[in-house]
Amino acid sequence: MPMLLAGNLFTVRCTSCGFIEENNDSPICEALRNRG
């Protein structure tokens, strides 16, 4: 069974319900646009 050691920058989890999905958008949300 493979184990994820370092995490995945594209896997996002909802903090309310725990739903997990892959998100390859850049930026990941509008609040992060033009930051960094």
From TrEMBL:
The keyword Transferase is annotated on this UniProt entry: yes
Top-level taxonomic group: Eukaryota
Name the UniProt record assigns to this protein: Uncharacterized protein
Keywords, comma-separated and alphabetical: Transferase
Classification via InterPro entries: Sirtuin_cat_small_dom_sf
GO molecular function: transferase activity
